[in-house]
Amino acid sequence: MPQNTDTKPAERAVAQANEAVRQNYPFGDAQDLEDARRGFMGTAEDHVIRDGEGSAVWDLEAYGFLDQECPDTANPSLWRQSRLCSDHGLFEVTDGIYQIRGFDLSNMTIVEGERGVLIIDPLVCAATAAAGLALYRSHRGERPVTGMLYTHSHVDHFGGVRGVLTDEEVAGGVPVFAPHGFVEHAVRENVYAGTAMGRRAAYMYGAALPKGPRGQIGAGLGQTVSTGEVGLIPPTVDITRTGQTETVDGIRMVFQLTPGTEAPAELNIHFPDRSALCMAENATHNLHNLLTLRGAEVRDPHVWSRYLTEAIDLFAGSSDLAFASHHWPVWGRERVVTFLSEQRDLYGYLHDQVLRMLNLGLTSAEIAEEMVMPPALEQAWHTHGYYGSVSHNSKAVYQRYLGWFDGNPAHLWQHPPTEAARRYVDFMGGADEVLRRARESFGEGDLRWVVEVVNHVLFTDPDNEQARALQADALEQLGYGSENGTWRNFYLMGALELRHGSVGTPTTTVAPDLLAALTLDQLCDALAIRVDGPRSWDADITVRWKPSGGDALTLRLRNGVLTHVMGTGPSAADPDVEISLTEAEVRAVLLGVVAPADLAARPGVEITGDIGRLTEMLGHLSDPDPDFAIVTP
């Protein structure tokens, strides 16, 4: 792990900007601090959480430095948010509802039933979830898990399930609730583009950054992600409509489906017997992402806003508190309505104003610079862009409606980064002249311009040490001034890798449980993404699988495209090889666990044709790179 030995102090312009933040916002408002600590019951004695192999996956005390006054190297607003998120332990939300906070990026909620507990959103990994449940039991007794509920399809809300629940318990009748479409979206997001998302998530959450005033201080939504094993136990109860009611272990729940908000499959839950409302990740103490910096499908702020209105209409009149899968609860009916209404207005305003400005002809970048939030929202701490920012969310709305192209034909067919960089540097008089003038801009505090022009030098000559050093310094200063936690992490990760080289991807979500949850149809889609198209142009190979007890599956590689057909319809070409086996064996071969040459020796497997054609087909697959370059070509 690189150390913080070569970080720099804050430049004067950055320090002044951070001081202005102190003057402009209500730092004397202690309501959030009171709410974040309300109901605290205790925390784990061992502050380091380890996995089964003994490796540390989470350190509860890593952010203890946040107790000190905010230095010039951090935006005071982000420092405040990170300090609130760093409180860790077991908290009583209301009678019979508890939360584990600060044990991972997300919260784990525990609702007591007649004989056991319902677990809501079991964190990112098994080790942190197990530690959280152990802490709860140390205070409330050895209550069994009698239900599991995933609020939505992001990994920090299901990945730790195997730390608190087993397959045997589910087979024995413990229900697992999830919104309609959960598995499809959970596995698609984490497998199809999982490698690229994982690499970019390393920048977004900054898990590899040293923790400290000049390093990683949080991600806004929580501190960072744990680095343990991700799992998935598929749901057994599908929530398909708003108003659906379910009872488990005496716990009554009324659901509101909210697809297309913070996740493609998501829901809110009302607990009528406790006058409590769980808002999942649809209303938290920050502006959320409409398009995450790690990458995802663009979310719809218009429908997000409408679902928040619906939640107010359905539940606010009978809710004495609202809690979520991140941050701390809000107590009091009037405060709940105000909180949800301001969150609703936040997303509605972003949506409507971007549409207004794009219809005036402004481009994505222009809208992001013009967008100013209403003063009443700006003064509410929970609307600040600690995780999603007004800037990149504005661009996301533009992308949702108009895509990447801004309409200017000059931007229709631009050179790729390396070729453009070479021409820019040549036009500007060479690398030495660019760096000379960039240093002047650095001294003037124009850091945004520095990173733009020095980036051209790096993409022309990535080994230019002067360019790497200057770019790292400029990125670092931009990080120091960022209110958005993920922006800070991106900037500081860029600086870290320019100084020390790649630190890789600390976490992965392409876990065995997620691969096992893929349908055969999805598994074939995942393989098609890995075909090296140009190298496969001349290939024409057809393989037919005949799983025992299931439909035939025909794979064909032709024209650089791997297509598949379930069954033997007209589009299923005659095979070069046909293989009869179990579905588990089909999966094992396609996932690379079993070699095609070893199939003939397996009991019950029948092969007709040339098995070498299957080997040839799989040879056209390429492996993704979990360590691809980001700040250099």
What's this, in brief?
This protein has 633 residues and is of the alpha+beta class. 38% of the residues lie in helices and 15% in strands.
User: Number of helical segments?
Assistant: 21
How far apart lie the N and C ends?
A: 23 Å
Apparent shape: globular
- Rg value: 26 Å
Classify the secondary structure makeup into a structural class: alpha+beta
Largest sheet: 8 strands, mixed
Strand content: 15-25%
Number of strands: 21
As residue ranges, the low-confidence spans are: none
Give, in spatial order, the strands making up the sheet with the most strands. Answer: 1-4-5-6-7-8-9-10
Mean pLDDT figure: 95
Helical proportion, percent range: 25-40%
What does this structure look like?
- The protein is 38% helix and 15% strand.
- It is built from 21 helices and 21 strands.
- The longest helix has 26 residues, at 333-358.
- The protein is globular, with a radius of gyration of 26 Å.
Topology, element by element:
Elements: H1 12-24, H2 31-37, E1 40-42, E2 48-50, E3 56-59, H3 76-85, E4 89-94, E5 97-101, E6 108-112, E7 117-120, H4 126-140, E8 145-149, H5 167-171, E9 176-179, H6 182-191, H7 194-205, E10 237-239, E11 245-248, E12 251-257, E13 267-271, E14 276-278, H8 301-315, E15 321-323, E16 330-331, H9 333-358, H10 364-370, H11 375-378, H12 390-402, H13 417-427, H14 431-444, H15 447-460, H16 465-481, H17 485-500, H18 512-517, H19 520-528, E17 540-547, E18 553-558, E19 561-566, E20 577-581, H20 583-590, E21 606-609, H21 612-618
